[in-house]
Amino acid sequence: xxxxxxxxxxxxxxxxxxxxxxxxxxxxxxxxxxxxxxxxxxxxxxxxxxxxxxxxxxxxxxxxxxxxxxxxxxxxxxxxxxxxxxxxxxxxxxxxxxxxxxxxxxxxxxxxxxxxxxxxxxxxxxxxxxxxxxxxxxxxxxxxxxxxxxxxxxxxxxxxxx
Length: 162
Known about the structure:
Layout: E1 4-6, E2 15-22, H1 31-39, H2 43-50, E3 60-64, E4 71-78, H3 87-103, E5 108-112, H4 123-139, E6 148-152
Parallel strand pairs: 1-6, 2-4, 2-5, 5-6
Antiparallel strand pairs: 3-4
Helix pairs in contact: 3-4
């Protein structure tokens, strides 16, 4: 399945579901979700840090777009404490997110990898860990359904010089 990269304004990304991964002990201030948080008047930070959600590993929260995003819904998936985030934790959270996307019958999905939760040199590896549960789910859909998988906020590839 083809995975698209999206680098445009997040509020213009049309999809059924925008999936974001959040850590438990930090407000959502960086990356794509930082932009979404700003657009939604800090709703994500309040939910992740001070609200009932608290971004525990595997915890999910489903939010509306408040008329401010082209994404129909926003799914937050907790990664637990930032210090504990590693690739297996990210893979587990991705499976939770893909299961939730299937239950929501989302076929046009955008993923915002939690790049700020990992060292920059692990960004590509992190993104690759997040994709398989979504590609499996979308590939298994009936042929007559639209399907789209987009990664947003991915840093540009570096050339060999650097």
